[in-house]
Specification:
The complex is a heterodimer of chains A (445) and B (167).
Chain A: H1 13-16, E1 19-22, E2 27-31, H2 33-36, H3 38-49, E3 54-58, E4 67-73, E5 76-82, E6 88-92, E7 107-109, E8 112-114, E9 121-123, E10 128-130, H4 134-137, E11 155-159, E12 162-166, H5 174-178, H6 181-189, E13 196-198, E14 203-207, H7 211-220, H8 225-228, H9 230-239, E15 259-265, E16 268-274, H10 287-294, H11 296-304, E17 305-311, E18 315-319, E19 323-332, E20 335-345, H12 350-363, H13 371-385, E21 392-394, E22 403-404, H14 408-412, E23 419-421, H15 427-440
Antiparallel strand pairs in A: 1-2, 2-21, 3-12, 4-5, 4-7, 5-6, 8-9, 9-10, 11-12, 13-20, 14-20, 15-16, 15-23, 16-17, 17-18, 18-19, 19-20, 22-23
Helix pairs in contact in A: 10-11
Chain B: H1 7-25, H2 29-33, E1 36-45, E2 62-66, H3 69-80, E3 92-105, E4 109-122, E5 125-140, E6 143-153, E7 158-159
Parallel strand pairs in B: 1-6
Antiparallel strand pairs in B: 1-2, 3-4, 4-5, 5-6
Classes of the chains: A alpha+beta (445), B alpha+beta (167).
Chain lengths: 445, 167
């Protein structure tokens, strides 16, 4: 059988023509077919979601030996488990025999994986334990690891509790992938002496739009809150005078605060600005002890600064209105699933936990008052992208006066930058597409 | 375990659930919000896997947790303000409430369980939500109001938005 043909228009130079990239002139235009062309999604699946590092899970989701969760990496069903040895593994969630999925629930605990179709059974490290009528049916001996064992996800590694995985082994080290995103993750994890954990109760939401619309929004759209989230800002104002209300972290007029937007390289990016009301964050109560451990600058960053981190291509680690993991994946070129996990310090005091939960629920997940408005706008962008007489998006804000390399603020917290700009800096989107081109056109440039 | 009562009490109690559904569908927002007590708890639980729920709203995440009528009014203000893209336009909705049982009854407090399905129609697409709710109704100055509604939504995969009119 012939291999599927790649669409002829989207080979290497073809993809580069989707972008008019003239940042010094303040011009960056993206052809909207990146959102609508199913052939492009196929390339993204192969080279990004199945060909590079993506975020998979948090270690606290599988704390005990035998714990597993199931997920989809690109198009492929995957099990992430903590084996009986304690090691974290990734396997293709399919029986080597005829391909039936071994684990069919979102999570669970299993010492062994038994296929319910024909009974083949595997231990928690993927080795075949039992193959039906093995001696009758197959030349002996069968190789229970490489022959009929589970297929491993080639790379599974953690950084500070966050598990990343790659379905290709042709990837750099995780550290070389994360770059400046790593110290940004440190600023979150170091807040809690016993570490962070994913809280019980997670949910997902679907929007009818391309996955990159979510990526772009969380990875650097500092221009939308005053408009898309005007209703949430209104709710925040309604609560200001109300005794006992859990207050909302203020995000109106971000650009009037001290802040900026950062591109870390490899498509990762972040937004930061000084919260006007840091005292309303649960972690703020920890400022004195964090100052003692980490010094004033870092402790202030941990407790009082709005921080969005976008790790290309599918993780937003947000420490801002609330503190959460937001991960997302394409279901089709115009349909995306987002999953939300609220995270908290292990053994967090009760009152701080309640405040944390209420702030999370207010904004995030499909049942919050922020996420639905983002989803609605992504859907409108998707519909608008079909307006092919207006084929490009104009994503040039702040490009002409960007700053190349690390700036002083980033250096003060030990972070290396590729480039940066003012709040709203759309170089954060440009850096995502720079990475996109690198991954989709390997060997180019 | 269901308890018995007389027909007029039954009508008064189930009438609150019916009016809640009708007021939402007919967008009689003022009538709807008046059904809640000032200190009401409105809780929609989140799931942890297929059949386990996150049960402690002070330790675990909920889909929605509000412990005052003021918080319900905030949400109502938001989705009727014309400033929330997810609610421009609002969907048309139709609530079906059924299999209502009276679980407990005293002079001024009643507990009921209902099952419900809600059809929502927006941009010419139909979405459905389904679940069950445990209600505590309290009689205040002769009128039964909702003091607590704990809901379990079976399809918690929110499609674009999940708000109070979907429940």
């Amino acid at each position: 059988m012939n291999a599927p043909q790649q669409p002829p228009g989207w080979q290497r130079e073809g993809l580069a023509t989707l972008f008019d990239r003239r940042p010094d002139e303040g011009i960056y235009r993206v052809d909207r077919s990146v959102y609508t062309d199913p052939a492009i999604l196929e390339l993204e699946m192969e080279h990004i979601f199945e060909g590079s590092w993506i975020y998979a899970a948090h270690e606290s989701q599988i704390p005990e030996k035998g714990d597993f969760i199931t997920l989809t990496m690109g198009r492929q069903p995957v099990i992430i488990n903590r084996g009986m040895s304690g090691k974290i593994n990734g396997f293709i969630n399919a029986c080597p025999h005829r391909g039936a999925r071994l684990c069919r629930t979102e999570l669970g605990n299993r010492k062994n994986f038994a296929c319910t179709y024909h009974g083949w059974t595997f231990d928690s490290s993927g080795e075949a334990l039992w193959v039906q009528r093995e001696e009758d049916g197959y030349p002996q001996p069968l190789d229970h690891i490489n022959g009929v064992g589970l297929t491993r996800v080639p790379r599974v590694e953690s950084y500070r509790g966050f598990i990343f995985a790659s379905l290709s082994d042709q990837v750099p080290t995780l550290a070389d992938h994360l770059l400046g995103a790593a110290p940004y993750i440190d600023m979150l994890v170091d807040q809690a002496p016993e570490g962070f954990e994913v809280l019980k109760g997670y949910s997902s939401s679907i929007y009818h739009g391309n996955w990159k619309l979510m990526l772009e929004n969380g990875g650097g759209d500092g221009l939308h809150p005053d408009y898309a989230h005007a209703s949430l800002l209104g709710v925040a104002n309604r609560k200001l005078e109300r005794a006992g209300a859990v207050q909302t972290m203020q995000i109106d007029k971000m650009h009037e605060k001290r802040g900026g937007q950062w591109a870390f390289g490899n498509g990762h990016s972040g937004i930061w600005f000084n919260f006007p009301n840091p005292e309303n964050r649960p972690i703020y109560k920890r400022l004195p002890e964090l100052t003692e451990i980490h010094g004033e600058t870092k402790a202030t960053w941990m407790t009082s600064v709005f921080r969005n981190l976008s790790v290309y291509p599918n993780l937003h680690l947000l420490d801002q209105m609330a503190t959460l993991i937001r991960t997302f994946r394409p279901l089709s070129v115009d349909r995306t699933e987002i999953t939300f996990y609220c995270i908290a310090p292990v053994n967090e005091p009760r009152n701080e936990r309640i405040q944390r939960l209420r702030q999370f629920e207010e904004f995030f997940a499909g049942s919050g008052m922020g996420t639905p408005d983002d989803n609605a706008e992504f859907e409108e962008c998707q519909k608008g992208a079909e307006g092919r007489n207006l084929a490009t998006s104009y994503i040039g804000f702040g490009l002409h006066n960007r700053h190349e390399g690390t700036d002083e603020v980033a250096r003060s917290v030990g972070i290396e930058l590729a480039h940066s700009g003012i709040i709203g800096y759309e170089g954060c989107t440009m850096t995502q597409y720079d990475r996109w081109l690198e991954l989709l056109t390997p060997g180019e440039g | 375990m269901a308890v018995e009562t007389d027909f007029s009490t039954w009508q008064a109690l189930t009438g609150v659930l019916n009016e809640e559904a009708a007021a939402l569908d007919e967008q009689r927002w003022d009538d709807w919000v008046e059904l809640f007590t000032d200190d009401c708890v409105y809780w929609v639980q989140a799931w942890q896997g297929e059949h386990e729920l996150a049960n402690d709203p002070e330790r675990d995440v909920s889909l929605i947790y509000m412990d005052s009528k003021a918080m319900i009014e905030d949400r109502l203000w938001r989705f009727t303000s014309g400033t929330a893209p997810a609610a421009i336009p609002l969907p048309r909705t139709s609530h079906l409430v059924g299999t209502v049982t009276l679980q407990a009854l005293s002079d001024n407090e009643a507990q009921l369980r209902s099952h419900w399905q809600v059809a929502a129609y927006r941009f010419k697409e139909l979405t459905q939500t389904a679940g069950r709710s445990d209600y505590t109704l309290r009689r205040e100055s002769g009128r039964w109001r909702i003091a607590r509604r704990r809901s379990i939504l079976i399809n918690d995969l929110a499609q674009t938005a999940l708000d109070l009119y979907h429940l």
